[in-house]
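User: We ran a pulldown and think these components assemble together. Before we commit to crystallization trials, I'd like a predicted model of the whole complex to look at. Sequences follow.
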Amino acid sequence: MSAIILFSAVSIAQLMLAAAMAIASLRMFRGPRAQDRIIGLDTLYINAMLLLVTFGIGTGRVIYFEAALVMGMLGFVATVALAKFLMRGEVIE
Amino acid sequence: MMQSAADMPVWAAIAVAFFLLIGSGLALIGAIGFLRLPTFYERIHAPTLGTSWGIGGVMLASMIFFTVSSGRPVFHELLIGIFVTVTTPITFMLLARAALHRDRAEGNGNVPDKPNRSQPAGEDLGESDPRKG
Amino acid sequence: MLPYPLLTLLLILMWLLLNGFTRGHLVLGVLVAVFASWAMASLRPDKPRLVKWYLLPKLFGIVLYDIVKSNIAVARIILRSGRRSHNPGFLTVPLDIENHTAIAVLAVVLTSTPGSAWLEYDSNDRTVLLHVLDIDNEAEWRDTIKNRYEKLLMEIFA
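Assistant: Here's a predicted model for the assembly, 384 residues in total across the polymer chains.
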């Protein structure tokens, strides 16, 4: 009983997060301006992080949590560097 | 590896499913809004749905699941939650300031050019020329 | 000896959350946290002074409640955005708080709440430029920022 509930909830959640990732990458390709693409990238990695956590719930392994943490940190640094580049034209002043 | 989930109590499974669906549903709504809203400054509000309670719901579900299935309290998902709540405002603020800077430099008339003067936002902000950017 | 006791404590807590609680990791975490707080002291950030720290849970609760409320509001706006039911706009709010930490906390709170985004702070005029998704109740936004958050933050970081 609880296995069925968990399995269907995890599957639906994964489908929704995958759809969110597809939409975010659509906005990333469509633009229209650079700041829209960067926010698209930001949304994409956050949804990918959530997808990894749901994989962790589905398989019962803790290793996905660490992958999600690393992904969040690298994504944050990447987005900040890109935003800084948009503002000044260079990343390190 | 669903055999550990099979001997989970039903209330825990329902709680995990509830928070998981709320979290991923909010993330999906945020992404849809991100696609549908017309201007950049409106779009910046949509992904915060995913980064506030979207993350919160999925993290709560994961915490409940691992706490019940391993029989000891597991809280390390809180770290991702805290990390994301602290960092996303920083990226959004930087991006919004970069967008303001670019719009002012290019003379798109729809942004307030000084902080002490406020004007209503236009419909097609930053999208007058799709070749830009 | 310990320039930032709260930071040290939080770093130890984070180390234990990441690695699981064992006695060895406690020792290692204390070492890492003490060295990290010394490194932080050599950076010399301006130290925030918490006056009424017991009001922090109240602020946390208020923010959590407001985030839930505005999540629902923004989700509703997005799901029926075909009818253009909202009216976005910029909003300039004068601020009274001067403490940099308090301003940073206010910025994080306002940006992580869906429906309002902090764009820039002008330290000459001490005004902040916000963008809100639904500007129809502009007076309510100002009232929320001034009376609900700013008053509490001024009490916490006097």
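Confidence is low (pLDDT under 50) at residues 115-133 of chain B. That may be worth checking against your pulldown data before setting up trials.

User: Thanks, that helps.
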